[in-house]
What does this fold into?
Amino acid sequence: MNLFTDLFPAMAVAVTPTEKPTDDDPSVDTVLGPSLTHQIRARALTTCLGATVAWLIGRFTPGTARRSTTMALCAVVGTQLAQTWADRKESPLVRVTSLGSAAVLFAVVETPGVSQLFGCTPLGPVAWAGVGAAIGLAVAGQRFLPAVERTVRDRWGLR
It folds into this structure.
């Protein structure tokens, strides 16, 4: 499902040039190497945080284990879409494809037969609110990653 929902936003990012490279948004020439590794790590940690928080919300609210894993899946996809949107917010194509993918995710999860085909279960309003909160927390928490990385490197002497 993640591959399906990320396909069109990824293609939109590929064909949309960035406005102006800054220190926070490096150009293609400078993105390879340590900068690419940093961006991959930041996106992975942000996505992981969104999924973990959504899963925990699912486990600590009434519902089944399948509901919790469905919430985590929705948070994985939603966090990735939110990061893509934030990286290319000036692109109408990225906005449209991100919103379209979110709508497809919602439709797949909420359509009973299709949902079970993907190993999910339809979610109620409390679960969707938990997914939204997890995505918001993860994306907001992404700004603190550089400070956390510095602290970890300093604490354990890593380079």
Summary: Residues 70 and 120 are 5 Å apart (CA to CA). The helical segments are 2-15, 28-31, 34-59, 65-87, 92-110, 112-117, 125-141, 145-156. The mean pLDDT is 85.
